[in-house]
Amino acid sequence: MKRLFHLALALVVAGFALQSCVNNNQAKKNDSQENGTKVLVCYFSATGTTEKAAQRIADLTGGVLHNIAPEVAYTDSDLNWRDSLSRSYVEMHNRDFRPALKGSVTDMSDYSVVFIGYPNWWNTHPTIINTFIEANDLQGKTVIPFMTSGGSNIINSENELHEAYPGIRWAKGLLMNNVSDDDIKDWLKENGLR
Ligand SMILES: Cc1cc2nc3c(=O)[nH]c(=O)nc-3n(C[C@H](O)[C@H](O)[C@H](O)COP(=O)(O)O)c2cc1C
What we know:
Strands 1, 2, 3, 4, 5 and 6 form a six-stranded parallel β-sheet that branches. The protein is an alpha/beta fold. Strand 3 (113-119), helix 4 and strand 4 form a beta-alpha-beta unit. It starts with a helix and ends with a helix. It has helices at 2-30, 49-61, 87-92, 127-135, 155-164, 181-190, and strands at 39-43, 64-67, 113-119, 142-148, 169-170, 174-175. The protein has two domains: 1-31; 37-190, Flavodoxin domain (Rossmann fold, 3-Layer(aba) Sandwich), CATH 3.40.50.360. Helix 2 (49-61) packs across helix 6. The structure holds flavin mononucleotide. Flavin mononucleotide binds at residues 45-51, 79, 81, 88, 119-123, 148-152. Flavin mononucleotide is lined by residues 45-51, 79, 81, 88, 119-123, 148-152.
């Protein structure tokens, strides 16, 4: 009987511990939703680096991840920036080119803050970022760019985005090469997100 009582007690304690764990995760998810802020973290990543950066932002903001996928994925030879006949070279040397997206328009209506991440290609954003911005309604949202690169910075890309889409409320972007979690948190704070 005593053993049965101990077993029941252990089950109750384990149940409470599990519930508290679930609540903690829920609290983290809800972090960004204070004051009605819902965060969408969109990213295009050809070789996985920007995807990891996007994941870090989603973890710190409780945001939802959205992969900006091209209709036709980029192969290694497509990404050969030394080859003037490669797909990326050809696409990037015509700034009016708009690579097609896989899937249709993303439902943005729920989100007030939208991050858009991408690799640096030829010292700016890949043209698929233009496709994505032009295919979605970003009016009234705060849009925050982030980038990974082999060393180039984000400034030229930000300038081009501001110039091409002046109707969007752009917040300060971040180059996410070698950044610590504290760097990311400082940036989020500057943008009023923490
Ligand atoms: C086609 C192409 C062009 C690139 N151009 C630049 C560049 O101008 N400056 C730079 O610092 N890095 C450049 N890179 C390096 C990428 O920005 C860097 O590796 C990035 O982190 C890759 O991100 P991803 O793995 O998410 O695709 C280029 C890479 C590719 C494939």
